[in-house]
Amino acid sequence: MKTKRSDITDKQRKDLGACEHDNVNYKALEALNELLFKKLEYKDFKVIEHLRIEALNLRNDIVLLQRDNQDKQAEIDHYKKAVREIGPQYAAALNKSEKQFQKLLTEERARVSEAIKNQKQKCQKLN
Question: Distance between CA atoms of 7 and 54, rounded to whole angstroms?
């Protein structure tokens, strides 16, 4: 068996399909591919076809999930924008409601205080 480059002749390289750098050329790879193709049985083709279909289905699922993710992200962005726009309006309305509540509470306390004072005066008149 020859192992040195200098021992390998051009005829041997040509027969094996190797170039001067001792790499296999495309012609030899094609011959090997044809040989492997002939060795495969029909059931292997079914398995390969099944795997190919599964790979396509997975690819389609990934594409659909990416689209769904983009749609969900667009929806999230829409709601974030709405919150940014409505947030200050909500805060202003809340502050206004709180001021009105405080005003009504003050008025009610004054009214209750006046009513208590009137009741005390009536009680004093009766005694």
Answer: 49
